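Marked as duplicate of an earlier ticket. Keeping the data here for the record.
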Amino acid sequence: MPPFVRSLLLIVCSLPLVAMLTGCDAKIEQFASNTLYSLTLAESRSASMDAAQTDTSAVLQQAFGTPNDPKWPSDMLSESARSLIDVDRLHRAAGPISSLQDGSHLGLYREHCVHCHGLSGDGFGPTSLALNPYPRDFRHGIFKWKSTRRNAKPTRQDLRRTLVHGEAGTAMPSFSVLPDDELDALVDYVIYLSIRGEVERELLAAAVELGYDETPPEAELQIRLPLAGDAPPASDSQATSEGAEATAEIIQEVINEWVAAEDAVVEVPAATTVSSTSDADAIERGRELFHGQIANCVGCHGPQGNGEAVTLDYDDWTKEYSTRLGLTPTDRDAMKPFRRAGAPKPRPIVPRRLQGGVFRGGGDGETLYRRITQGVAGTPMPSLEVTETESGKGLTSDQVWDLVHYVQSLGKP
């Protein structure tokens, strides 16, 4: 039985468990804390994170609510940031699964996404361990398949494309049958979970700098939300404390990165004049670049894109709790504490076999151009500098297009 079929069967068999965990009546009071990142910080900073987790959880609940009653911190945001998420759509995607008399659905995230991506967007849902690659952990704020610069957030249209088309070569299915309003609600909720998760990570890291250890620091440095209002009374230490200012700054910065996504879209120059992807000259030039020293695609994707190059690298999600701490991902004893904290079993990164013609994130020319020049965020796939003239530092846009044509030719009979 093919591995992908086995994975699908495991998903189907897990659905009763999912129903038990997230059923229509399920009352889930709060999101689970990110114990995995807390443990990673505790190991890297040699500090206890218990007090920081307690205060961070309180701030997150005040600012972002609960799985059944999500919130959006509009009071502390600019107008553009406030409108990033529609609160009505957010509530439609959140909470337990139900439906109204008009046939509209509620609890869309739990209905369609939670069994893989988990309630908090940690990528550790009940069926996640049966899948390869693992479902995305939204809490890092890092997304692979997008039209923006490598370090930028995806646009709403990027997330919607993933929902509509799915991701070829993975267990991420297409949700094209869903109506537009449900797709918009799910996009809002994914952005919400990502922002909430990244704010949690940033607050935990900031807590160490503010002096948290086994106990919280002095009140002036404790993580907390500022009081409502643009100009709180100067006598109120909570509103003007260093801890409150740091908390507000982190929330605003994380959200503003999403607001700026549309301005980070990578503009793709017009394709070189090629009659078709079978144009022999363009494909031959691309083949030479693919196997050359500058692009060096062959180093990971193998000769002619056969995917047979041996790699011992991992994605950034795995490196964070392993190699960056000086630990070996294959050391089961070293990984046990992190596995108990919610880490999936480390798996080496597997470069795409391009000969199969299956391109995650899309195989059209513009998408491949962006993939070559920006790389893939969160993975060892590097970015490539685009130069005005041919040099040993990068490729010209025309050369990138030759490389695109060659890659596209690999997937054709």
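See parent ticket for discussion. The first helix runs from residue 3 to 22.
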